[in-house]
Design goal:
The N terminus is likely disordered. This protein is mainly beta and 251 residues long. The protein is 14% helix and 53% strand.
Length: 251
Amino acid sequence: MNLMAQMRWLSLAVLAGATFLYASDKDKKDKPKAAGVQQVDSGSFGVFIRGQRVVTETFSVRQDNGISNVKSRLQETGGATHTEQHSELQMTGNGELVRYEWSDGSGSLVVTPNNEFLLEKITPSAGAKPAEQPFLMPNTSAILDNNFFIHRQVLAWRYLATNCQTQNGALRCQQGAVEFGVLVPQDRTSVRVRMELAGREKVMIRGAERELLRLNLKGEAFSWALWVDEKDKFKLMRVLVADDNTEVVRD
């Protein structure tokens, strides 16, 4: 499968959810649509601050009868108290939000579409009355919640699939950064972020040098570097947040 076919496959698997092995219009005609549950990606990220592992994110990305499900669990490493966070992001075949849920064992929140826009319901503690906050954002807006790096991978897949193509065997993306409107549910806010392909770089992953594609993700108050593996379905392999001395590496 060539590079552009892989990106189209990922776009459909995660955002469009139509058929799991899409490579071209001809392939769609020749091959039946996949049914049932299909695994797109799974694994874990280690989150390191100043070289010390502080959080492990365990995640899975699946398709289930046309709905893409992105699940994640955050577990702190060490510390006096043991805390966990859980999230689940569901999208339709057109990349529209079906539902987003987050909880940490006490508080929780849910984001759902509401008349083509988004509505967030926040429950600060068990038994408390939920508060509601609407967002005048389309239901195709990306979810980038705090601390969930798998959400950054989904955004990278969307960027690559919709703004890049192969020319003479090389990946070419739209010149300049592409802007996305995103919702950060835990912060109860919407922001604009920009993503841009920086090119191939050699980086160290678990003691081994690898050549990966670098993407720059920037917002008003942050700048992150993301590296994805074009030889393995453009999976996110490493994230560097230099200003916070934070590195994220796929286990």
